[in-house]
TrEMBL record, chains A, B:
Residues 1-78 form the GST N-terminal domain. Residues 83-215 form the GST C-terminal domain. This is Glutathione S-transferase family protein. Gene3D superfamilies: 1.20.1050.10, Glutaredoxin (3.40.30.10).
Length: 221, 221
């Protein structure tokens, strides 16, 4: 049985969950309190991070490496284009979200508001929350600029870049930190991706102590 | 002409330089003061980071995306194995260095000691330097553990994972922050990779105000 060790609001885990669901891989989800760094968990994931995917008897870690593995072993439906330049653009945007957006926004909002409480690390630092709330505007504008030229983020087909972006934005939407009124084309893009069957499991997530807002799972938000 | 916008000690730029050199792509190196974020540079690299590779008339950014592009367009000599599991392991280790090692070690030593001065951001924070000097020991031990089981970091062939690791370690070696006496197999591995023709340009780097130690370019260090 394929098994994913994850936490529900992690954007890295969500990117892998979306990829698995799009490729119709049935997976057992196991919540992992990775911050407790149990020796058993560290054997599976030396970096001490989620997601970890158990598949074909092996433990794979690092979300981008896992998604590339899934793309190589289950090619259909494709989440990467065929042309090297277009593949480079997909990977650039995955790194944009998993590195830059994560550093400037996700870690400043989600981690301050949710992870700190779950891990017993105290209260949000308001300086960080303010900075994240400011920076997300720039990123939404960048998405909007991309979507003026393309149907999906990396081109005219949906790719892993859309999943990387939607993974971060959906986690922030769970805590009402995305202003969907900022640009219509970003909202339209998110509505398209949110209505895919692959998104269902993510919209059903519930984190104890953090009930999602009504619009979170609403396809007509 | 293929052109790489870079800074000499950036491990991300060095990973791309090693890949280009190994694949025998002639490249013009252009130093980019990326931290000044000139509008012209931001047009080429919206994330405001180096490396940026100008190739076939396009500007590519994000080091891992660039290296995957080079592997796809110039397959020989191969820097990625053929099996999906083995490719996943290469990408896991690239992420290990470019994410975890970078966060725990490179940013705490190289950026404190060198980048801050170059960018006019003041003096090293001794707390960070201490933390980086402590954490690098754990990483060297992890490398040593991998090399007990494998000829190269990700398996029995040299791959991009070796270049990712060597890129970080060579930048730190430039400021004498690597204890090569900690484990013999790590030292042997570095000696092997350092003696490759692809490494020559990196060993010739000179950063004004930061002369390298004598052992830096010495193949018999």
């Amino acid at each position: 049985m394929t098994r994913l060790y994850h936490v529900p609001l992690s954007p890295f885990c969500r990117k892998v969950r979306l990829t698995l669901a799009e490729k119709k891989v049935e997976v057992e989800l196991v919540e992992e309190r990775y911050w407790e760094q149990s020796p058993e968990f560290l054997r599976r994931s030396p970096a001490g991070k989620v997601p970890v995917l158990k598949i074909n008897g092996r433990f794979l870690s690092e979300s981008q490496a896992i998604c590339e593995y899934l793309e190589e072993t289950i090619p259909e439906p494709r989440l990467m284009p065929r042309e090297p330049e277009a593949r480079c653009e997909v990977r650039r945007l995955c790194a944009w979200f998993d590195d830059k957006f994560h550093e400037e926004v996700t870690s400043k909002l989600l981690y301050e508001r949710v992870n700190k409480k779950l891990m017993g690390q105290g209260y949000p630092e308001s300086r960080n929350v303010k900075s994240g709330a400011q920076k997300i505007k720039f990123h939404l504008d960048y998405l909007s600029w991309l979507l003026e030229q393309r149907r999906w983020l990396a081109g005219n087909e949906m790719t892993l870049a859309d999943f990387a972006a939607a993974a971060h934005l959906s986690s922030l939407d769970y805590i009402s930190d995305v202003d969907w009124n900022r640009s219509q084309n970003v909202k339209d893009w998110y509505a398209k991706i949110k209505s895919r069957p692959a998104f269902r499991s993510i919209l059903a997530d519930q984190v104890p102590g953090f009930p999602p807002p009504a619009h979170y799972a609403d396809l007509d938000f």
